C-alpha cells in the first residue's frame, strides 16, 4: 500500500474526530518504542503549538467580544488582556504556551484581587458562565452618574462597608454550626461576609430549617450591601461615621455621628440592602422602614394579602368562587379574612438607606417579617406536603403579628384553636384554647417545637401525638 493511500485512509478515518482525540492518539503512539516514534514526536510538538495558539486566540476573541457586549474597553498588553470599566479593571494573563495563567480584578483606587472562580471558568473555556459572572460584576459596580459622581458614590460605599464591618460582631475564628446560626439570627449585624472579587459585602441575617428538609439544612435570608441610583439627592458619608473608640453603655451598639457632623456630600444615590431572595413585607413594616431611613422603598403600596404573596405559584384554587382562598395540604386561609389592610404585603427586593446606623434597626424588622413568613410558608408552600395532615385546619389573622389555627379535636367532638404569636423573631409562642387544653406543660412543649422547627404542621403533629 503506497504512502498516499495510507494518508487518504487515515484522513477518512479521523475526519470526524476532534483534535483532542487525535492529540491523544499521537501521544499514545509516541509512548511505544517504535523506530517511527521520532516523526510522531515531532508531529505531536507541532500539534501542541497549533492547539496552544488556537486556544490563546480563542480566549482573546471571546474576551474582546464579551467586553464589547458589556460596553467595556478592551486592550492587550503583551500577554495580558484588560477589560476596563469606570470603577474596576479585569486583567487576564495568558501563558505563552497557551492557557490562562491568572485573572485579577482591581477596583478603583484598590489593590488587585485574585479571582479563582473566573480563572477556572476561562481554563475550562466556559465562556457563557464567565460572561454571566462579568455581568454580575458590572451590576455590583453599576453606580449611576458621570465618572466623578460614580467615584464619589463608590468612595462612600467603601466607607459604609468599613463602618459596617467595624459594627459587626463577626468573630475572628471559625464558628461551629450552632454558633454560626446564633450569630446569623441574633448578631447585631448578623453574619457579615466580606466583599471579594466575585461578590459585594453580604449580610446573612436570618436562618431557619429549610421547608421539607432535615433540620441541618438551612434556608438563609441575606442581603448584599450596594449602592444605587436615586431621583432625589441624599447626603452620603465621605468619611467614617463611627465614633472612635466605638463603645456604649451596653458594650454592644457602636455610636455613630449624625451626617451633619461627618464630611458628606449630596449625591444622586442611596445605599441599598439588596435582599436575597426578595422578601414579602407587610405594608406597616415598609412604613416602619421608611421612618428609619427617611427613604421609601420602591414598591407597590397597594399590596396583596400576605398568603397570596407568599404562595406565588404554590396556591391552588379548588373552586372558581373560592379563588381568593389559599388551599394547601389540609390548610385553608380564607381570602376575605386575609384581605385586610393589616395583612396586605408587597415583595421587596431592595431597601434604600443613607447611614450605617440604619442597618441594625432594618435587620430587626426584616428578621421579624422573616419569622412570620417562615411560619405561614410552612402551611401554604409545597413543602407542607412533607408533613401530610389528615385533618382540616383554618388559618385566620388575629393581628399583624399573630394568627390562629382552628381544627377539630381528635379526642373530643369539639373545636380547638392554636394561637400563634410572633412578637419578634426571637419571641415566638403559642396558646391552646378549647375544653381540656389548659395544661401549661403542653403549651410550653408546643411553643418549644414551634420555635425550633418554625413549622405549624410539625407543631400540630406534636400536639396530636400527645393526645
From TrEMBL:
Family from the record: Belongs to the Mediator complex subunit 1 family.
Gene that specifies this protein: med1l
Listed PANTHER family: MEDIATOR OF RNA POLYMERASE II TRANSCRIPTION SUBUNIT 1
Descriptive protein name: Mediator of RNA polymerase II transcription subunit 1
Keyword Transcription regulation: yes
GO molecular function, one term: nuclear retinoic acid receptor binding
Record organism: Takifugu rubripes (Japanese pufferfish)
Major localization listed first in the record, in broad terms: nucleus
Keywords: Activator, Nucleus, Transcription, Transcription regulation
Amino acid at each position: 500500500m503506497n504512502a498516499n493511500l495510507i494518508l487518504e485512509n487515515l484522513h477518512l478515518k479521523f475526519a470526524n474526530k476532534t483534535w483532542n482525540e487525535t492529540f491523544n492518539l499521537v501521544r499514545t503512539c509516541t509512548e511505544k518504542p517504535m523506530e517511527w516514534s521520532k516523526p510522531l514526536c515531532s508531529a505531536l510538538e507541532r500539534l501542541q503549538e497549533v492547539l496552544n495558539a488556537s486556544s490563546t486566540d480563542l480566549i482573546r476573541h471571546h474576551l474582546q467580544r464579551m467586553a464589547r457586549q458589556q460596553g467595556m474597553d478592551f486592550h492587550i498588553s503583551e500577554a495580558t488582556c484588560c477589560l476596563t470599566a469606570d470603577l474596576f479593571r479585569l486583567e487576564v494573563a495568558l501563558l505563552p504556551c497557551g492557557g490562562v495563567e491568572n485573572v485579577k480584578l482591581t477596583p478603583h483606587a484598590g489593590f488587585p484581587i485574585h479571582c479563582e472562580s473566573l480563572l477556572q471558568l476561562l481554563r475550562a473555556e466556559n465562556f457563557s458562565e464567565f460572561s454571566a459572572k462579568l455581568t454580575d460584576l458590572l451590576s455590583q459596580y453599576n453606580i449611576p452618574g458621570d465618572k466623578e459622581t460614580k467615584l464619589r458614590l463608590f468612595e462612600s460605599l467603601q466607607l459604609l462597608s468599613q463602618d459596617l464591618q467595624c459594627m459587626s460582631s463577626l468573630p475572628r475564628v471559625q464558628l461551629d454550626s450552632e454558633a454560626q446560626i446564633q450569630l446569623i439570627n441574633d448578631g447585631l449585624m448578623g453574619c457579615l461576609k466580606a466583599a471579594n472579587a466575585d461578590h459585594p459585602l453580604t449580610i446573612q441575617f436570618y436562618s431557619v430549617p429549610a421547608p421539607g428538609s432535615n433540620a441541618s439544612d438551612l434556608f438563609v435570608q441575606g442581603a448584599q450591601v450596594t449602592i444605587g441610583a436615586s431621583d432625589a439627592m441624599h447626603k452620603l458619608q465621605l468619611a467614617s461615621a463611627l465614633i472612635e473608640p466605638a463603645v456604649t453603655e451596653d458594650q454592644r451598639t457602636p455610636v455613630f455621628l449624625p451626617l451633619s457632623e461627618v464630611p458628606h456630600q449630596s449625591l444622586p444615590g442611596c445605599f441599598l440592602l439588596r435582599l436575597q431572595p426578595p422578601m414579602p413585607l407587610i405594608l406597616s413594616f415598609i412604613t416602619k422602614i421608611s421612618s428609619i431611613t427617611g427613604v421609601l422603598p420602591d414598591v407597590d403600596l397597594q399590596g396583596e394579602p400576605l398568603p397570596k404573596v407568599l404562595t406565588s405559584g404554590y396556591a391552588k384554587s379548588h373552586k372558581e368562587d373560592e379563588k381568593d382562598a389559599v388551599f394547601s395540604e389540609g390548610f385553608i386561609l380564607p381570602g376575605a379574612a386575609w384581605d385586610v389592610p393589616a395583612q396586605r404585603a408587597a415583595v421587596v427586593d431592595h431597601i434604600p438607606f443613607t447611614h450605617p446606623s440604619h442597618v441594625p434597626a432594618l435587620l430587626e424588622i426584616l428578621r421579624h417579617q422573616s419569622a412570620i413568613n417562615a411560619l405561614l410558608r410552612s402551611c401554604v408552600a409545597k413543602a407542607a406536603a412533607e408533613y401530610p395532615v389528615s385533618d382540616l385546619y383554618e388559618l385566620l389573622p388575629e393581628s399583624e403579628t399573630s394568627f390562629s389555627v382552628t381544627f377539630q379535636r381528635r379526642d373530643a367532638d369539639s373545636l380547638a384553636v392554636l394561637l400563634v404569636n410572633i412578637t419578634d423573631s426571637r419571641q415566638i409562642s403559642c396558646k391552646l384554647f378549647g375544653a381540656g387544653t389548659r395544661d401549661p406543660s403542653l403549651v410550653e412543649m408546643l411553643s418549644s417545637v414551634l420555635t425550633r422547627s418554625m413549622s405549624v404542621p410539625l407543631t400540630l403533629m406534636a400536639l396530636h401525638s400527645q393526645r
